[in-house]
Amino acid sequence: MLRRSFLACAALSLGALALGFSGAARASSGYTVSGPVTHENLSIYFLHGTSAEGPVPLTLEEAMLKGTARVDETGSVNQLSIENLGNEEVFVQAGDIVKGGKQDRVLSVSFVLPPKSGKIPIAAFCVEQGRWRARGKEDVTKFASAGSAVPSKQAKLAMRMPATKPEGGLDRGDISARQQEVWRNVARIQDKLSGNVGARVAAPESASSLQLSLENEKLDEMRRAYVKALKEAGEQGDIVGYVFAINGKLNSADVYPSNGLFRKMWEKLLSASVTEAIGERGDIVAEAPKTEEVLAFLDDAEKGKSVAQQAGSARIEMRDANASLYMEAARPSGAFVHKNYLAK
Nearest 5°: CA angle at 69, between 223 and 114? Predict the structure, then answer.
């Protein structure tokens, strides 16, 4: 039985099928790693554990559909305004794409938005280069939905590291450089998907929009085969996170405090992972990584050099290791709300 130490809860927030697998690895903290479940070039491992007590927050997607959360334009490419109008907490995850406004954006921080929060600034990056006006009948002042997540490890890496000066102020030059890298990644995603789907995924309404590309019908048809093969495996009662590998290489991991929150996020997470896998499909079939490699990946990320940022009551910590990047988001109390691991 393999063991590893999961990082204790750290303070962080805004700033920014029961398959019965054999050979599962149990972490000393109580999480059990099982898998992989594989379809084509995508392999998924699950993290099982005890769920935190208490109500499960709404996701941003749920809250926007209910009309209890708003994401508004501010006139700045890299900063939006978010507000919880309801009586339930709302979980926002780094990588959520909000559609509409003057340009589609991807949010760059994970946190829990309290009830009746008032308007709060939130960092974002544009995933639709060039448009700065209403698209069709969309409301240019606000965003209509948050149903997708960015399907690119490289784009996530470009967004993750803090864009600050040593004295705490924003480094505008660094933000600009990261925005340029996000745009380059969007273009690469579109090119890779177009090549493997066999048709151009860019939408006539806005060729640079990543969100509209993700809604492409032929891409969606390819995604459905993966989802059909993998979705049910993530619907166990004790799964709190997952790790995935593409073409035999570990890519990313996401962990949550409860199965309830994981289940709410699972379809969106899986869709993004599948989309990335479709973009990376090739002729070579690689063997899925061993469980030992999964545990080593998680360990390496947690041992990286720590960088923390504070914004209001929220604190964001990142750990930068040689081969991976770890991010943990927590409530002001210190209870974590999201852990993300990215292979470099």
Answer: 110
Residue 232: alpha-carbon gap to chain centroid: 20
- Cα separation, 43 vs 310, in Å, equals 36
Two tokens, residue 204: 């006539």
pLDDT tens track for 199-250: 999 999 999 999 999 999 999 999 999 999 999 999 988 999 999 999 999 9
* Rounded Cα distance, 13 and 241, in Å: 19
- Residues 186, 210, 150, 308: what is their CA dihedral angle, to the nearest 10 degrees? 60
Q: Where are the domains of the chain?
A: 25-53+227-343
Amino acid at 95: G
pLDDT in tens, 95-127: 999 999 999 999 999 999 999 999 999 999 999
- Rounded Cα distance between 165 and 142, Å, is 30
Cβ neighbours of residue 237 under 8 Å, at least 6 residues apart?
A: 18, 259
CA angle 14, 147, 113 (to 5 degrees): 25
Residues constituting the chain:
344
280: left (phi over 0), alpha (psi -120 to 50) or beta: alpha
**141: helix, strand or coil:** coil
The H or E element spanning position 260 is helix 259-279
Kindly report the number of other CB atoms within 10 A of residue 39's CB atom: 16
The sign of the torsion formed by the CA atoms of 207, 212, 216, 222 equals positive
Find, among 125, 132, 107, the residue nearest to 178 by Cα. Answer: 125
Q: How far apart are CA 259 and CA 241, in angstroms?
A: 8
Question: Do the strands 58-59 and 90-92 form a parallel or antiparallel pair, or are they unpaired?
Answer: parallel
Q: Which residues contact 215 (CB under 8 A, 6 or more apart)?
A: 203
Measured CA to CA, the distance from residue 14 to residue 332 in angstroms comes to: 10
Helix (H, G, I), strand (E, B) or coil at 215: coil
